[in-house]
Write a structure and sequence with these properties.
alpha/beta; single chain; 36 helices; 6-stranded mixed beta sheet
Length: 1126
């Protein structure tokens, strides 16, 4: 029987890698062989069948008309025919039938009748239900049911609105079809074209799917025969593109280059590394003898072998085994293995966890054991291979809220030693990977047992879950012990070959410095108080328990990155977006009073540092050199120059410099306020009513409005909203403002009215920029209404980004002006500043109204820490636009933003819970139709005037009409810059600049200022600015999505830049982020143009959320401009 190419399974494989389809078709013809996986699929299949039978029994109890077509005596065609007949007859449940649409066929588990949607069969239709013996839906589940739904639409003449997956324990997961349908539609069409004429043209390319692909060995054979560059260790797609441009297309050609000469387009360090790597691999091919050599560049700095401490008595060797979220909800670190030699005897501790409670207990055991061990052997370390163990411990201590302090102390004492970093930084090896399994041949480590790889150990754990057969756990434990033992043997080998000119690493911290600090004692004490308390509301009690330690957890990634940078080279720091790496001095510093001004040139790179920011030497290893690098006075993005100001007393900066952010600053006031609020709960005090109302998600308490009534009762928002806010009764209100609805106008209008009532107003937001935006609108409105008041803004007078000086509002650096003004009675004032300022104790319950702008960008913990200052809280924002920049790992809901917590996943605020500004004055109807249907439950309408903004497109213009347009890009290997997309942007701007723009009767010519050019990456932003200015397009408005939130223009052009999903420098969740897409598209009043490569969508998603995110981008394919392909 020939292989069925048109099945959901084949579509899933196609999304992983197109070449898989070639292998599937040609398996017998070319005698291709799949990798044999050592797993027991039969057991899982049987469990799945039993789960399906159990669900069928449940359905028979609930429904009378149940038809079972899962019978072996029926052919596929007979089942298809009987399925259609059963649907015509209106059976409530159809089990085990078949569906067909053209070439596509598939056997579903269940069809269930839906009497709320008509079909060609009558006043009912059907939906698909499938049973999956799994804890969470997997992408292949979604793809499978999506394809069934596609075939079902053909059969019944109407598309179902949802399909359902029944998981373990009969948990139902409903998926809305409109959230995933475009994903299936486009991929299905592309697959059909591919099978029709593209299969035999396909060549294997290395991708992220390779590691789990059953055809990996067949592709590896081809690459080895071709001498393909993708076999060079450490070579990226960007490197590959540059090498091919240099006509270097094989490992042999690369190996013949001179490592002392820099390849064109490469940095010195990378050029030398790739050539040396290729030479070693080719030499190994000839001799079959593993080769290693030290990396001379790292012999005398804090890298490689210099990271090794002196070996001590009884060092520990550590490894973790884990399973992912789809196997155990939330994931599970199910085995912590510790190996050591004590008194000449081999010892191994295996800490097994089969649920979250055991995971918590074993985390305690791990730290108790190691702490006791360190007392016995003070100089001993914990050796591991790779960063996973450290990351997992961070996640575990954060999630379980235990042993976080011990974890921090271990890091500070440098107790963890990552031998992968020693290996990678210290040695060139003749292997194309530094994985432990590859490195083992250098110290001749021989493994035993069936489990040889980590993914197989995970499969064995799945089998244990299914069978409870102890043999599976024994095999895993043996594998884990061998990993630990291998790490031990690797350590011995590294000590044997350690170059004599390298040093021993010595920690700068002493054991006695790491006693519990006061803030740590407070954190532990409050944790115990809350857990032992009698707080009545269990959800609030849990939340308070989780919130404790939030700021500590949030700072941990920054602390870790701060110290990690110390071991990075200047070239490596170029790739760190928090830094400006490998800057070269422009000459001698020039005096400026008691400081020196330093000018540096930098290479093209993506960075976040901005003017006025204080910086440190990111990789400072010189004990004579102060960390502080100076304040950024200016950044010239066109010339790629940075000007730094540093005090003369700090010494002289080096000629080559990398700068980055300073270490995190303590959040003492915010933490203190959190404890202050918790104290009121512990004592059952009736304080901070507005904050309590919010946390309990009560309906806003508004005088004159009953609970459950619509809050806004008319379209006269300008009159009604100030009245509603004025009548807040020690409560809160959320005003949701979609793009262009005037939320800042409404907030400033209400603030003026409150000031007239002599109210004390506090204004805050995530950044000074957000705060200044609202303050400016307040100033403008006060001028229009000829109203005077006094406003106080907290800022640093040496940092322009923090200063706001208007007619009424002035910036002050010291506290006395704020403290004096807050004491004044019967005088309305504004007090503006970030959360750090508003956390001052002198504001406690002194503020009548706290306005938080862009509230979706602040954390729930932030609101708890500053909510104590106000009698009433007004939240302004939109949960569907840019969210909070969360870094840490937090338990349960404690890491949510203010609006995530309040809205619980809803796209719009219900009419009885808040105010939804339902009319956009920016987006015309075509753009709004997309935005409203995809982000705002079709509640957003546009003002009539928006369609009276008209661009008179000329014959030269590619764009012929208003609305959303997609331009397909066909570039390759672009990561964070795309010259091809610049060419399109340039062409579009030159075609449209000078064209007539009619804005409701006001006619003028379009200028460069009428375009917003948006990209996800600063490097593409900088390239676009410099190239457009070379084309005589002066001062183009180019920036990232973050920069342009709140801004608008007649035309927005979005340059997505990257070529495919494997080229993405960040994860898919960032790139395809739903909120970022909303902000980008909705900057445009008339025309929104998106440039992106469809290959970005041609990848296998990892979960349902990724499918939903990608689905929004697939919708753009319907807006493609024909006959314009770059």
């Amino acid at each position: 029987m020939s292989k069925n190419l048109f099945s959901p399974t084949m579509l899933k494989k196609y999304l992983g890698c197109k070449y898989i389809i070639f292998n599937e078709i040609n398996e017998k013809k070319l005698n291709l062989k799949k990798i044999e996986l050592n797993i027991n699929d039969k057991l899982r299949f049987e469990k799945g069948n039993q789960h399906e039978k159990n669900y069928l029994k449940e359905l028979k109890k609930k429904y009378k008309k149940v038809l079972d077509l899962k019978k072996p005596d029926l052919t596929r065609e007979e089942k298809i025919s009987k399925t259609i007949q059963a649907m015509k007859e209106g059976w409530e449940i159809i089990h085990g039938g078949w569906l067909k649409k053209d070439k596509w066929t598939g056997e579903f588990d269940f069809l269930i009748i839906n009497k709320e949607l008509k079909s060609k069969f009558g006043d009912y239709s059907y939906e698909v239900i499938d049973t999956k013996y799994s804890n969470k839906p997997k992408p292949d589940h979604i793809i499978q049911l999506g394809m069934y739904t596609y075939m079902l639409e053909n059969t019944q003449g109407v598309l179902p609105k949802r399909f359902t997956i029944v998981l373990k324990n009969m948990v139902r997961e409903d998926v809305q079809v409109n959230q995933v349908n475009e994903f299936f539609k486009i991929h299905r069409e592309n697959y059909e074209k591919f099978v029709g004429n593209g299969v035999n043209k396909q060549r294997p390319e290395k991708c992220s799917f390779c590691n789990t692909c059953e055809w990996q060995e067949e592709c590896e054979k081809i690459w080895i025969d071709e001498d393909n560059l993708n076999q060079v260790g450490g070579l990226t797609k960007v490197h590959l593109k540059k090498l091919l441009e240099l006509k270097i297309d094989t490992i042999t050609k690369l190996s013949k280059q001179n490592p002392d000469k820099i390849l064109k387009g490469f940095r010195k360090e990378i050029s030398h590394k790739l050539i040396t790597q290729a030479k070693l691999q080719k030499e190994y091919e000839k001799t079959n003898v593993p080769i290693h050599k030290p990396k001379e560049i790292n012999l005398h700095n804090l890298k490689g072998f210099n990271l090794l401490p002196q070996p001590s008595e009884c060092d520990l060797y550590f490894d973790i085994e884990s399973v992912e979220d789809h196997i155990y909800p939330g994931g599970l670190e199910y085995l912590l293995g510790i190996y050591y030699i004590e008194n000449g005897k081999e010892k191994f501790k295996a800490l097994w966890s089969h649920n979250k409670e055991e995971e918590k207990k074993n985390l305690i055991k791990f730290f108790d054991f190691t702490k006791s061990h360190f007392k016995k052997y003070p100089n001993s370390k914990i050796y591991h291979y790779g960063s996973y163990e450290i990351t997992a411990l961070l996640k575990l201590t954060s999630f379980h809220k235990i042993k976080g302090i011990e974890y921090d102390h271990y890091l500070n004492l440098d107790k963890f030693v990552n031998l992968l970093e020693v290996n990678r930084q210290g040695l060139f090896i003749s292997e194309n990977s530094y994985s432990l399994k590859n490195v083992e041949k250098f110290y001749e480590f021989k493994r035993e047992g069936d489990v040889q790889k980590g993914d197989v150990s995970q499969e064995y754990y799945i089998e244990w879950l299914e069978t409870q057969d102890q043999n599976f756990l024994d095999e895993i434990e043996s594998y884990n012990k061998q990993d630990c033992n291998s790490t031990y043997q690797l350590h011995k080998w590294l000590l044997d070959i350690k170059p004599s000119e390298t040093s021993w690493f010595v920690s700068q911290r002493k054991e006695d410095e790491m006693e519990l600090r006061d803030w740590e004692k407070d954190m532990i004490a409050y944790q115990e108080k809350v857990e032992k308390s009698k707080i009545k509301n269990k959800e609030i009690k849990q939340l308070m328990s989780d919130i404790i330690g939030f700021y500590n957890r949030e700072d941990k990634p920054d602390w870790r990155e701060f110290f990690d940078r110390r071991t990075k080279s200047d070239e490596e720091l170029i790739d760190d977006p928090e830094c400006i790496g490998n800057m070269k001095s422009n000459g001698e510093p020039t005096p400026d009073k008691k400081s020196l001004l330093y000018s540096y040139k930098f290479e093209e790179q993506d960075f976040k540092l901005r003017k006025s920011k204080k910086t440190v030497i990111a990789n400072n290893q010189d004990i004579e050199q102060k960390d502080y690098a100076g304040t950024i006075i200016d950044i010239d993005y066109k010339k790629k120059e940075v000007l730094l100001k540093r005090g003369t007393s700090q010494g002289i900066l080096p000629k080559i410099l990398s700068i980055g952010p300073n270490k995190p600053t303590p959040n003492t006031k915010l933490i203190s306020n959190t404890y202050k609020f918790i104290d009121t709960l512990l004592k059952n005090e009736k304080k901070y009513e507005a904050l309590n109302d919010f946390l309990e998600k009560k309906h806003p308490n508004i005088k004159g409005i009953k609970v459950g009534e619509k809050i806004i009762k008319s379209n006269e928002f300008n009159k009604e909203i100030p009245s509603i806010i004025s009548n807040l009764n020690n409560s809160y209100i959320y005003i949701q403002g979609p793009p262009g609805t005037g939320k800042t106008f409404q907030a400033s209008n209400a603030i003026i009215e409150l000031l007239k009532q002599n109210k004390k107003i506090a204004i805050t937001g995530l950044s000074h920029k957000v705060i200044h935006n609202l303050l400016q609108r307040v100033e403008d409105m006060a001028a229009e209404k000829q109203f005077k008041f006094n406003g106080f803004k907290k800022g640093n007078l040496e940092d322009d980004d923090t200063i706001f000086n208007g007619e009424n509002i002035k910036t002050y650096e010291k506290d006395p002006p704020f403290m004096d003004a807050i004491k004044e009675k019967n005088v309305g004032n504004i007090f503006a500043g970030t959360k750090y300022h508003l956390a001052n104790s002198y504001y406690d319950e002194k503020i009548d109204y706290l306005f938080i702008d862009e509230a979706g960008q602040l954390s729930l913990a932030d609101l708890i820490s500053i909510g104590n200052i106000a009698k009433n809280i007004v939240l302004i924002g939109d949960q569907n636009q840019l969210g909070q920049p969360i870094r840490g790992t937090h338990p349960n809901n404690s890491g949510q933003s203010i609006l995530e917590y309040l809205l619980e996943g809803k796209d719009t605020i219900p009419e009885d819970k808040g105010i939804f500004l339902n009319k956009t004055y920016r987006l015309n109807s075509k753009i709004n139709n997309f935005i409203s249907s995809n982000f705002y439950e079709e509640r957003l309408i546009c003002d009539d005037r928006t369609d009276k903004r008209i661009i008179k497109f000329n014959n030269k213009s590619i764009i012929k009409k208003d609305g959303i347009h997609y331009i397909e890009m066909k570039h390759k290997n672009n990561v964070q810059t795309s010259i091809e997309e610049f060419e399109v942007v340039k062409s579009l701007m030159k075609q449209l600049i000078g064209v007539e723009f009619d804005d409701n009767g006001k006619k003028r010519k379009l200028t460069a200022n009428d375009f917003l050019i948006i990209s996800p990456y600063n490097t593409q932003v900088n390239l676009l600015i410099s190239k457009l200015e070379e084309e005589k397009i002066k001062n183009p408005r180019v920036g990232t999505i973050d920069k342009f939130q709140g801004q608008e223009a007649p035309i927005a052009i979005i340059s997505m830049t990257s070529s495919d999903s494997d080229s993405l420098p960040r994860n898919k969740e960032f790139f395809f982020n739903r909120n970022r897409l909303n902000v980008a598209i909705s900057r445009a009043q008339v025309v929104s143009i998106i440039l992106f490569n469809p290959n970005l969508l041609d990848s296998s998603p990892k979960n349902l959320e990724q499918i939903k995110l990608m689905n929004n981008f697939f919708k753009f394919l319907n807006h493609k401009i024909k006959y314009f392909v770059i």
